[in-house]
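Q: Here's a chain of 297 amino acids. Please give me its 3D structure as tokens.
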Amino acid sequence: MLVDPTNHGVIEEDVFEVIAPSIPGYGFSEMPHKKGFDQIAAAQVCLKLMERLGFEKYYIQGGDWGSLITRIMAILNPSVITGLHINMPSAENDGLEYWLRVAVGSVFPSLVGVKPEEYDRVYPFGSKFLDLLQETGYMHIQATKPDTVGFALTDSPVGLAAYILEKFSIWTNPANRDLADGGLEKYYTKDELLTSVMIYWLTGTVTSSMRFYKECFAGRAMETLSMTVTVPTGMATFPHELGHVPEAWCRSSHPNLIHYTLMPDGGHFAAFEKPALLAEDIRTFVKKVEGLNSPKH
């Protein structure tokens, strides 16, 4: 939709050249051979990749780990980043200021910048937090003992499929948790889902992909959430994402936030589930940035 817009009803001038790197240890890229390969290291690899490909300035976009990696790229070398677009905004949430905002916002949302249309995505905070706990058990084990579950899944294709497809079910829409079939084929085809599973199975990279979580919390990657991103930034938030960060809360670490979209539908796997919505939002963001950079008459 970005590289071939005319076949998707978009004008020819909106053509993008897309570089889609695979994170080392995930499917198509060789797994790291040393400890310490975290999201900061991945960002450095991506910056070096773009330099070797000959790109002097470019836009970056990411969701999930990609949102953290691209954000770090913009922190490490903002001079080469024309704009940053992410579809899983995050914010530092371990300080007193954050929890005060959460508490005050539950009663007086406007005082902490929570818009009326955002309120139901943040509150009631207690139930939202319990939902998050229920869906992040995988993160605890992958961040502490990745090899334990990784070796088991490397030995069982059925186990691997169950582990991965459960995420496609619930993270696309939490209402799928109550469906006998998980609602998987409401959004994806069996072929698409099995392709995702086979990428990990055939390359034997599920264990190395899980180690990425341990490296994240063992290193300094999470500290970057408190660092300021100065490049023009755009964000798209989908209603069924694992969590929601209000626009006002994002501005403290993204002072150059020029674009923020509350999407009408979609979940965690936005590029997979709602590619048209995401592609259009990227185009809109890029046009805003290009408008900022164009000479004024």
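Q: Can you summarize the key feature?
A: The CA atoms of residues 236 and 261 lie 5 Å apart.
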